[in-house]
Amino acid sequence: MDVQLTAAHWVYLAGILVILATMALRKNIVVPAVVATFLTALTFSGSIVTGLSAIFNASLVAAKELFNIFLIIAMVTAMLGALRQLGADRMMVAPFRRVMRAGTSSFLVLAAVTYVISLFFWPTPAVPLVGAVLIPVAIRAGMSPLSVGMVIAICGQGMALSSDYIIKVAPGISASAAGVEADAVADKAMVLSLIVGGTALLITYLVQKRHWRAPSPDLLVEWEAAADRGIGDTRGDDSSGGGGGGSRPPRRPEPAGGPTGGGGEQAATATAVLVVPSDPIADPDAEAEKERRGTAKAFAMLVPLAYLAFIVYLMLGKFTEVVPPLQGGDAAAIVGGIAALILFAAAASTDRGGFLETTSDHLVDGLVFAFKAMGCVLPIAGFFFIGNPEFAGPILGISADAAGPAILFDLVTTVQSHLPQNAFITSFGILLIGLVAGLDGSGFSGLPLTGALSGALGPAVDVDPSTLAAIGQMGNIWAGGGVIIAWSSLVAVAGFARVPVLDLARKCFLPVMAGLILSTVFAVLVF
User: Fold this and answer.
1) Please, which residues have CB within 8 angstroms of residue 113's CB and are 6 or more apart in sequence?
2) CB neighbourhood size of 339 (10 A)
3) Closest CA to 172 of 365, 33, 330, 12
4) CA–CA separation, 497 vs 491, rounded Å?
5) Packed helices 465-480 and 182-208: angle between N→C axes, nearest 10 degrees
């Protein structure tokens, strides 16, 4: 079918190219997206009023489509904040330390725990939870700091986030842009993420294993000492953290043995003994601390059990007729509902008198985090939505009875006759676009583009659009989600592992790219 391209088509195409070039330069793409939205609407309508309105309408339409995503992120983050205040977050992963006895067992436990927790809570809040508790244990068991960082990045920011199978944020964005069901994208993304992650983990294990050492408490002391040397003269500067070790206040005179050595502990104990009265009356503070720890243990068991029960329910609905199956939006809503109830209970346990205010504070913190993490997606998604006829009408102020322009699909239809009609070339092209889109380090901002291109190109090359959308999702999130891009959330992983973030990104690059190539070939041949 011949399509007559107009000036609006060329302006829209120029906007896409500028955005991709801006991503390649590692710059934020919000401003180019907003300007491209304005120019496209202005050129299409010939009205500056419509152009200005489109800037707002595009973000508004994107917000309507994606607000459920913001809300689920906010609720889960708020719940984790309440658990952290109670002290239950550390207790949730503490039992795994008992089985981390050597390098290989630590590798497997670290990978499994990071993956499971990141799958349910996202890696941004999960990485600090896992890293603060399990990384020192893995170092003591003989793993190198670099291999520890690679495992956490691959399993958290990579394998768990790229499928996002439980919360279904990423599949929802990809599916909305591609015009397919979110569950179809999620199921294929789960398989592809396991292929990429399994390949990357296997290569990491084979390459890094030779750097591991025999388990010893001295390894942990050496790791901490290396971090101390990295801090150097900035030890007392509150503004510096150096190597992920965190900022430290100026040292005060301490007893022999230091603050963490045996002498320091003995001195502190001796001091405490001197001030304890001989009266055997129970210490109220000790009783309160005992009660708090008991409550924290209860929540440390409640949270995994609650989400385990939810997983069982999902599986029953998917593979049996015992319970009705849940769609993507319903599943995400239940995750948010469980998070909200746990948040209320944890806040009430921590602050019985003022738990109403405490709960509100946690929710506000969760919403702030959600908009910080996802806010830039709205104007970017708005620009790419203007190329989709389903969303173009409201953005351009067209009557609901009239169909919106299919700008992006018109462009694809025009050029597809000049491109090789080959499933492999198209699939790897979508993967490359996803990787380039991930260069901004945000992880999700390129999903509207890869999703929209998948919906347009899939029928032309006889590939299911959901398959192409899943491939593009792999490229976008494995790059920008925080595995092979150093200016992303990989910084947090490097900080906890206390390794240079550029070294960590460089070491992750080849294992991840090998996995992405293998998964793309698998998707074309099998899906």
Assistant:
1) 93, 96, 130, 134
2) 25
3) 330
4) 10
5) 40
How is 47-115 classified by DSSP, letter by letter? -HHHHHHHHHHHHHHHHHHHHHHHHHHHHHHHHHHHHHHHTHHHHHHGGGGGG--SHHHHHHHHHHHHH
Residue among 487, 507, 500, 489 at smallest CA distance from 157:
489
Q: Which of 216, 68, 209 is nearest to 147 (CA)?
A: 209
Find the Cα–Cα–Cα–Cα dihedral 353, 358, 360, 365, rounded to 10°.
180
For residues 476 and 186, give the distance between their C-alpha atoms in angstroms, rounded to a whole number. 15
Q: At what angle do helices 48-86 and 328-350 cross, to 10 degrees?
A: 50
* Rounded distance between C-alpha atoms, residue 477 and residue 165, angstroms: 13
180-217 per-position pLDDT tens digit: 999 999 999 999 999 999 999 999 999 999 999 998 88
Q: Is 316 exposed, middle or buried (0-12, 13-18, 19+ CB in 10 A)?
A: middle
Closest CA to 169 of 316, 374, 338, 468: 374
Instruction: Kindly tell me the sign of the dihedral angle through the C-alpha atoms of 129, 472, 61, 44.
Output: positive
> What global pTM score does this model have?
0.70
Contacts of 98 (CB under 8 A, 6+ apart): none
What are the distances in angstroms from CA 131 to CA 203, 306, 327, 519?
22, 23, 33, 28
324-343 pLDDT, tens digit each: 887 656 777 888 888 899 99
Quick: pLDDT tens for 116-140. Answer: 888 887 786 677 767 767 888 899 8
Instruction: Count each helix (H run) and each strand (E run) in the chain, helices first.
Output: 23, 0
∠ Cα 179 124 226 (to 5°): 145
pLDDT score, position 255: 38
Domain boundaries, the chain: 7-65+376-396, 407-526
